[in-house]
């Protein structure tokens, strides 16, 4: 069901971009996916800007804050009904809480953690904002994927923290995480083609035509990391790219 009004704890619910240039990012992704940018006006919103498609919230973009030394990056959020308990599981499973639960007005509460290999995962406990209002349609979030240097460790960690299962029926180096009887994410070893200084990472895929958008990505100042290609054994096409500020994202067409 592409339109969503709620998410079960353990599902991916949201994605947002922290960037060095919010207007440029809004223009870049708006050109690719047809998103409209709507900056929140509440005092203390800090420039957080909703990205909408046909009036429905699909993602967001925000400026990097303070002395954040990291690159521009996408964060993906897993739904939780108890952030404190989830962070306890993170610690017990060898991960590292990076940010304690923070109230975001009446929208909900967020926290950040890293898995044992250092991949950052965001957590969301919903208030009035449950997550993306549209998924699995053109221009919307359709998949998330982990590139890691420790596949075995990631399997154990995410099973323990979120209760995810594993589907390795496709063989090869690719693993799908499952939850509630369906695949919710993928995982693969970090490719040697990726920048050496890029740590393990989660990234979102948005649904569109990678062959059509590949030229636009480069014309707009982005970089193709993986040129458009067939998805091995699963059908569809994909590409992986960085935006002009260096944030990694994917495009998938089923």
Task: From the structure above, extract its key features.
single chain; 254 residues; alpha+beta; eight-stranded mixed sheet; 17% helix; globular
Describe this structure in words.
By secondary structure, the protein is α+β, with helices and mostly antiparallel strands. It has four helices and 16 strands. It has helices at residues 22-33, 83-92, 151-162, 210-219, and strands spanning 12-19, 36-39, 49-53, 56-63, 73-79, 96-104, 108-114, 120-126, 141-148, 165-167, 175-179, 182-189, 201-207, 223-230, 237-242, 248-253. Strands 2-3-4-1-5-8-7-6 form an eight-stranded mixed β-sheet, covered by helices on one side. α2 (83-92) runs antiparallel to α3 (151-162). The radius of gyration is 17 Å and the shape is globular.
Q: Summed up, what is this model?
A:
With 254 residues, this protein is of the alpha+beta class.
